């Protein structure tokens, strides 16, 4: 997918967001980043498949991925009509436009589709909605260290869950499957973990009677036995769902999904909120590098407040692990003249420099240092 257009929804009157293999959403709190993510979440929780036979007449506003409340409250304050639109554009510049209205008298928890016949026609030409088939959202509020994980409701899925609740199950089911590099999933996950944290090894045990999966961990190279998952650092527990979700999708799906027949370009998308949570700056940078490299295979959208994630991505371009043209940074900022935020698209050039560095874009360190020096200067007088 290469573009998303949003009209009359929440803070947006009419905005287009550029998407790439790796898309970064950055900017201040309340500037509109979550609204972009919520658009994807609405479609993911409302559509079970991208085929016209399964086309939903409704967008469900309150379900597993997101809870947005009353439909009328989601219409933009300055909208000149009551139609809310979302347009997805694929790699071949083929678009699908969805037009919705709210109807509180029928159901305040839905948007009703207005142009179903047009959407069905466009679905035959565009693969922009195919992301719903193997979509993954990993939220900012992920699970910390736990003694065990329940494994219900997810045996036929590849998803680790929005809080990482199915990470242990996915890992346990597929850890011996071989990835394109010739190593199994377990070895690949541990290789990434050890690169980010110097040394971490994880494995799982499955209790059939209780139907639970349990992580176990070694976090020192001299460790001879795996330890309880409650000894797992928060940074490791927060990053595990991300790494597992990214790597498990490298496995041949015919081997892990029963009756797998999907033929079209899949356009898989993983959306990750605050991947940097609970990580040391050096680990954040290495995670940014990993996400950049893996986005050659899976489209990834991240929402981040970390300059270290950005720097890890920039380093990956210098080492040719991702083409700089396959990265898109969208900087969201408030607009004093309108309720609608500004969105500035920033590119990374061939030298890993950013094409723009607007005020407020990861410049707080410089601003703080200037203020510190100013206070020192005044105090010396």
TrEMBL record:
Annotated Gene3D superfamilies? P-loop containing nucleotide triphosphate hydrolases
**Which GO molecular function terms does the record list?**
ATP binding; ATP hydrolysis activity
InterPro entries per the UniProt record, alphabetical: ATPase_AAA_core (IPR003959), Bact_Antivir_Def_Nuclease (IPR051396), DUF3696 (IPR022532), P-loop_NTPase (IPR027417), P-loop_UCP034888 (IPR014592)
Q: Which SUPFAM superfamilies match?
A: P-loop containing nucleoside triphosphate hydrolases
Ranges of residues in domain ATPase AAA-type core? 22-310
Q: Can you give the residue ranges of the DUF3696 domain? A: 322-371
Residue ranges the record marks as coiled coil: none
Q: Name one Pfam family in it.
A: DUF3696
Domain of life per record: Bacteria
**Protein name as catalogued:** DUF3696 domain-containing protein
State the organism named in the record.
Aliarcobacter vitoriensis
